[in-house]
Amino acid sequence: MPPPVRLAIFDCDGTLVDSQANICRAMEHAFSLHRHEPPPRAAIRRIVGLSLVEAVRALTPHENDVFHRALAADYKQAFFTLRTENRLDPEPLFDGVAETLDQLLDLGWTLGVATGKSDRGLAHILAHHGIADRFVTLQTADRHPSKPDPSMALAAMAEAGAEPEATAMIGDTSFDMAMGKAAGARAVGVAWGYHRPSELIDAGADVVATDARTLPQLLGPRLSEAS
Fold first, then answer.
1. How many helices (H) and strands (E) does the chain have?
2. What pLDDT, on a 0 to 100 scale, did the predictor assign at position 225?
3. How far apart are the first and last CA of the chain?
4. pLDDT for 145-184, tens place per residue?
5. Which of 11, 18, 74, 176 is catalytic?
6. Is 172 marked active-site?
């Protein structure tokens, strides 16, 4: 009997790549179009990981749904314009991420992504770094409700053929931890992103990695050793 599929689902922004500068820049531009003072960058970083409408709703809770959807649309357009005009900063992989993905594959893990990005945004960043072929399942805000709803994690498990007890949700925000727990998966926080380790633990993280290279050890042994 083949061993069970072991699935590691990664968040993108703040976990795989450091994209905060571009997210903040596009959000500031969107606010300026509405003649609103943009929130501090620290506040913008707090909502990274949420789907876009939920993110702007969290930033402007006093505004109505029409405003939230208009601001979200302007953010998407601002990001696209900045990219096409080559005005975005590099969005580097965090230190050790590429090697860690390859090591997990060598250890028999199946990899996926669950992100508040759009399909287009995720495809661009994975292609840019040449890592798209590492992942067998890609779940985005285009097809799912916002984190912490478990929809993305559940869809990733279904597509990969993995059970919750053999799945880890890896992310840098409390939204990722809550989503993983809601899906019945292990919640693995990373300390190099946009929420503090204490917040990840409060949201249900089973463990918090301080370096990407420690993830294979934290996630467990080879499949043959675990079966």
1. 11, 6
2. 46
3. 10
4. 999 999 999 999 999 999 999 999 999 999 999 999 999 9
5. 11
6. no
Q: Which of 13, 74, 172, 176 is catalytic?
A: 13
Residue 13 catalytic?
Answer: yes
Rounded distance, CA 146 to CA 51, Å? 5
Query: Which residues neighbour 6 within 8 Å (Cβ) at sequence distance 6 or greater?
Result: 108, 109, 110, 162, 166, 167, 219, 220, 223, 226
Q: What is the pTM of this model?
A: 0.93
Give the span between the Cα atoms of 221 and 59, in whole angstroms. 41
Tracing tokens 């050793």 back to the chain, one arrives at 225
The structural architecture, per CATH, of the domain 5-18+92-226 is: 3-Layer(aba) Sandwich (3.40)
Residues 6+ apart with CB under 8 A from 66: none
User: What is the per-residue pLDDT across 71-81, written as a single tens digit (0 to 9) for each?
Assistant: 999 999 999 89
Distance, CA of 145 to chain centre: 14
Two tokens, residue 94: 């965090």
